[in-house]
Amino acid sequence: MEDFRWTYLQLCKEGGVEPQESVVAQLQESRAAHSSRLDLSGHSLSTDTCSILARAFQKDAVFTEVSLSDCMLTEEGTKMLLAGLFHNTSVKCLDLKGNNLRSTGAEVLGKLLGCNKTLHRLVLEWNALGVWEESFSLFCDGLASNNTLTHLDLRNNQINHHGASELALALRRNSTLQELDLRWNNIGLLGGRSLLEALQKNKSVIQLEMAGNNIPSDILKALEQSTGHNSEREFTLRESRNKTHVLSREIQSLKEEKGRQFLSLMETIDRQREEMGRSTKSSSAQIGQLQQALNERKSAINSLTAKLQMTEAALALSEQKGQSMGEVLCRMKAEKEEQKEQQSRLRKKQEEESSLREGKLHREIQNLMETNGQLRSKVEELECRCKSQQQQIFELKQELTNSTAELKMRLMKAEDRLESEKRRSKQALEDMETLRHKEVENVSQHLEESERALQERIFKLEAQRIQLEEELGKTKAAVVTERAQAEEELGKVRTQMRLEEQEHVSSLEEKLRSLRASMQQLQMHCSQQKQSISELQAKSSHQSMETDGLRRRIEELQQDLSGKEQEKMAEVSRVRVELLEQIGQLEADKTAQEGLKAKISALEREMKVLTNNHREVLLDKESEKSSLLEKLRLKEVEIQRMKEDEAQRASYLQSAILSYVQGSPLGHYSSPNK
């Protein structure tokens, strides 16, 4: 309480708001009474105090019930105050009676119901939530998504049939609301029908108050019947839960008893197993030593086989590498052939081009020679025809000489060009051939080196393989000899064991009669055997360097093992008898469990009979209720008739009194005053 009061005053200081004296006084009273109820009803709260109280309620974990009835809250104040309760985890009951909440209040209340997870009771009497249909639909959406509210009071909220239909939709989705008070609203016939349809699907509403809503009596009766069915259903569910809880407790107690018995049996069996283990440890130790020697030899063989596998894998890898290198060589050869074909094609093309160029040049030279011959013939004809024109001919000769010189120069240049082009083509071809030869030589050298390295690795692996095969042959021969010796020794031991078993069959029957004496004898034998084993171990430590002594020791150990195995057989027979007794006990327990199962089935049958009887009783009660409801209806009709008669009488009296007053002198005095 003091924390809430201190936080309220601190928030007032921080916000620069004067604390309201009535609120501080009420907080002081609640602190003195040590109550978890904050009663601010009748105190007018301003918007500043509402904002500060909202901030305080966000941090509050003390008050479980808050009463804000008749506080004259404004829309902003209600919005702030309810926003502070969105994420509150302590307030379970909220009273907002007579605050004239309208559209904003309904919207904020819908958000509160959608966010808050601890509110169980909400009182909204004497407000106006149903005036605005859109805001009331938001309130109904919040109610539909709420899973904690159990009691809702909406009396005198001006809810019409549209609001009732929205409430019906919310009730179809809500599964926790148990009590709903809708008295003194304007729900009407349509709203009553929608609520009736919703209650046919809702199974949680137990109590519904619908007085003063202009709803017909048949719909009211149907609503009462549906709520009655819901209450009876909840009552039967509670009874069935209680009965199942009792039966589960009984079954759990029986299971615990059976578990204890089973644990006791398991403890006895574990003790016997421990005794058997102690007796067999001494014999298993010697067998373990022999098995260790065999395992060591097996491990050596396994290591050799693993080495062989590794060498085989390495050989396979080398073969794969050789195949891959062969494939690479084939590819390189194919590429070389392709390159040679390409070079030959290029050479042919170049030769064809050079031949074409030479042909063109020869044609030009021939044409020039022909022109020269023609000119010479013309010169001779001119000399013959006219000697007078020698000067002209001389000039023509000079011109001819000049033209021939130029032609010769052109021929020389063309020849030089041909020779230079031929030289360039030859150099390019020679360079290409040298590069190809170098590449081929490098690839061949690389392949030869890789082949040499692979051959060397193959020779080494073959040598290792030969060595490993020789070692394997030696180890196999040694293992075969050792196995033959061991088999011979085991055959001797088995023959001795069979003879001794035949001799001890008769003695075992006598030992079964006197178990206690045999147990003492067995303990003595075990102690003697332990001593003999210690002596044998000492002898084995002294005679470990001698191979001949090892064989003698093995024979002695095998003889001891045969005696121990006979003793083991005797102990096994004794344990079998005890296990048979335990099996008998377990079968008796099984029979007891079957009896318990039969009892459980009988109890289930009794439960079924009780449920059937309960159903019959419920049907009888329903018939009685229907008869009582009919009686109530008749009484209500009579009461309505009485009310109508009384209203008629009152109207008659009023008319009579008015007529009497008007006829009396008092009426004359009162008329002029008016």
Question: What this model shows, in words?
Answer:
There is one protein chain. The protein is 82% helix and 3% strand. The protein is mostly helical. Strands 1-2-3-4-5-6-7 form a 7-stranded parallel β-sheet. The chain starts with a helix and ends with a helix.
Which helices and strands, and how do they pair?
Layout: H1 2-15, H2 21-33, E1 37-39, H3 47-59, E2 65-67, H4 75-84, E3 93-95, H5 103-115, E4 121-123, H6 133-145, E5 151-153, H7 161-173, E6 179-181, H8 188-201, E7 207-209, H9 217-385, H10 390-513, H11 515-542, H12 547-663, H13 665-673
Parallel strand pairs: 1-2, 2-3, 3-4, 4-5, 5-6, 6-7
Helix pairs in contact: 1-3, 3-4, 4-5, 5-6, 6-7, 7-8, 8-9, 9-10, 9-12, 10-12, 11-12
Give a brief outline of the structure.
The protein is mainly α.
CATH architecture of the domain at 1-249: Alpha-Beta Horseshoe
Order of strands in the sheet with the most strands?
1-2-3-4-5-6-7
| Structure classification | mainly alpha
Alpha carbon gyration radius: 61 Å
Low-confidence stretches: 666-674
Report mean pLDDT, rounded to a whole number: 81
Main sheet properties: 7 strands, parallel
The CATH homologous superfamily of the domain at 1-249 corresponds to: Ribonuclease Inhibitor
Question: What is the fold named in CATH at topology level of the domain at 1-249?
Answer: Leucine-rich repeat, LRR (right-handed beta-alpha superhelix)
Organism: Poecilia mexicana
Region (Disordered): 334-360
Protein name: Leucine rich repeat containing 45
Subcellular location: Cytoplasm, Cytoskeleton, Microtubule organizing center, Centrosome
